[in-house]
Amino acid sequence: MSVHIFVTRELFPEVTEQLKQYGQVTIGARDRDLSREELLKGVRGKDAILCMLTDRIDAEVMDACPGLRVISNYAVGYNNIDVVEATKRGIPVTNTPDVLTEATADLTWALLLDVARRVTEGDRLTRSGRWQGWGPRFMLGKDVYGSTLGIVGFGRIGRAVARRAQAFDMRVLYYSRTRLTPQEENRLGVVYQPLHELLAKADFVSLHAPYTPETHHLIGEAELRRMKRTAYLINTARGPLVDERALVRALQEGEIAGAGLDVYEDEPRLAEGLAELEQVVLAPHLGSATWETRMKMAKLAAENLLSVLRGEKPPHLVNP
Ligand code: DGY
What spatial distance separates the first Cα and last Cα of the chain, rounded to whole Å? Predict the structure, then answer.
């Protein structure tokens, strides 16, 4: 009997073809998120789901799909999936790490440089026709070269961001649940700091921790107050790591200098007041959004899914 695979949103034709070699494929939607009702209806009777980070895959979805054999997430972060519930039911959950590390690190740097040097803010001014010409104190930003970068969460992406910092001759501080060995710290040229110390010392604080109940609002009012008034917050990880309302208030009151954000607490909605602030750069969740990376993610998500269906261990299993 042929297997039935549900892909919640269309990826790339070559990947759909690859999946079709194995079974029947149903695509949920071409260019939009599925509604909850569509998702619940779409998964009915399926053996495998290839889902997006915007699909909430919880007990209700698993109930709607009792024969489910695998949940393959098209993302490295898998906070959209109830992994505990899936594990209880013996359903493997997979993700797509590694292939998006460099693209996400690049985007982190794009935001950091942009907000520090006021590129998007300047672009808005230039386009508006209100630019009056060069001035000695016009639109001054912050030196990136030689400054201090604080990386919160030191997994693959945090390390890729740190590697790029060497080219800017930066001092790199990191905070992570597990500390590296002194040899590794030396090799990577990074210094461990408890979070509160890192926040107080860094000129740029960049978030790369996974989102879990423990990291919810990791950066809230108190943490923002610890940061220098001249410092910038960069978030390309997950929106709810930051208390967005506290961030808006900190920016409005000048407690920090600016922020470069790619992710938000309630995407695609923004906290009230965020879009009105000049000193923020707001990207629409583009961390892994390059042709090359998204193709690699799609192939890896397909490979994860098919290997489970073939009875093999998938390349990237997230269940404990
Ligand atoms: C991920 O994979 O978690 C990224 O956020 C996708 O862009």
Answer: 30
Question: CATH 3.40.50.720 region(s) of the chain?
Answer: 3-99+291-309, 101-282
Q: CATH number of the domain at 3-99+291-309, out of 3.40.50.720, 3.40.50.300, 2.60.40.1120, 3.40.718.10?
A: 3.40.50.720
At 2 the pLDDT is: 86
ipTM score for this prediction = 0.92
The overall pTM is greater than 0.90: yes
Residues 165, 172: contact at Cβ < 8 Å? yes
Give the tens place of pLDDT for each residue, 164-195.
999 999 999 999 999 999 999 999 999 999 99
From the list 208, 285, 294, 316, the catalytic residue is 285
**Residue ranges around ligand 1 (CB below 6 Å):** 53, 75-77, 100, 287-288
CA atoms within 13 A on the CB side of 127: 6
